[in-house]
From TrEMBL:
Its main location: membrane. This is MHD domain-containing protein. GO terms for biological process: intracellular protein transport; vesicle-mediated transport. Adaptor protein complex 1 (AP-1) is a heterotetramer composed of two large adaptins (gamma-type subunit and beta-type subunit), a medium adaptin (mu-type subunit) and a small adaptin (sigma-type subunit). Belongs to the adaptor complexes medium subunit family. It is found in: Cytoplasmic vesicle, Clathrin-coated vesicle membrane. GO terms for cellular component: clathrin adaptor complex; clathrin-coated vesicle membrane. It comes from Dipteronia sinensis.
Amino acid sequence: MAGAVSALFLLDIKGRVLVWRDYRGDVSAIQAERFFTKLIEKEGDPQSQDPVVYDNGVTYLFIQHSNVYLMTASRQNCNAASLLSFLHRVVDVFKHYFEELEEESLRDNFVVVYELLDEMMDFGYPQYTEARILSEFIKLMHIEWKLHSGLPWLSLMQFHGAAKELITRRTKWVFLDVVESVNILVNSNGQIIRSDVVGALKMRTYLSGMPECKLGLNDRLLLEAQGRTTKGKAIDLDDIKFHQCVRLARFENDRTISFIPPDGAFDLMTYRLSTQVKPLIWVEAQIERHSRSRVEIMVKARSQFKERSTATNVEIELPVSADASNPNVRTSMGSASYAPESDAIIWKIRSFPGGKEYMLRAEFTLPSVTAEEATPERKAPIRVKFEIPYFTVSGIQVRYLKIIEKSGYQALPWVRYITTAGEYELRLI
């Protein structure tokens, strides 16, 4: 028997992952990046037109349709002709469902895409590839109206309510992202001038009918109203704003967040914490002028959160003189480049674990002739960008997310936490 596929990836024209399905657990999402790097190298070779890429024990087979790459990754010896035929069948099935296979149709229908990938391949082995058979048990949003004479006119709200009652889905999903944005301004003496946290509970729901959802947080007032305690800390939320689907009267009475969610993406709740926040990534910069024409900058970046968390896509923008030239930059981690259009050094660190410190050194040359009465140059602040998954500054926790529907079906709730940098600036002068 031929070997099994480890994972199937759908990529956009720039190599970014749109959808991927892991079947055997022996490859990771990073394989897509390695594949695209190898693919770019192959494009420079006019003699290489084969749809197979091999790298570090992983074999990639791919085809391109419109602005989408379909690619399988495997660590076993697979039947290449069979898998390429399977990828073409995947294209045919998607075209049957979405009329055309392209990036937009995948983004708009990703839940159905995952359902199809689960049915078309099992543990890495191709299964159903006939669109007519798949259509029998995987359906797009389907509404069937029975019109009767004398049917009264419906208001817009009644119309959407009736339509949602008739929507049926094979798999029910609820995605909840708790996203917090940290805003910090630090002066040149290291004192925090302003700090706050702006948070949002972002939901995406794909449910049948009109189920009632109940959400529980570790909100201090809620826990006190219910006479409950929690192992973790309780938090105080300020400036709470809810989506219009939330029953406000019930929240004001007993702090219960109860709602009937609309279909698709929406912000269920936004909030703010005005308490002083410890900078998650601290940056110190020392500027030494060795002469009128040579300047050296030494920068230390330190992560001030627990070791079990890791910041990703860290980007530190360090301002330099507008007339600086001939940069020489060295870093202990990540990569740095001079951006003359921004008069800054851009230091990028892909992964920054908690409790770590990294350094950057840069030397520049300046014009040796300067005006004696030149006004001092106003320095821009150091700006920092980052993301920390599975982490929140406020400590907010989703204690429960209940989905109550009269037919009693089971839904799959997914909760994710992430902290990002908002207006995060450290002044030099």
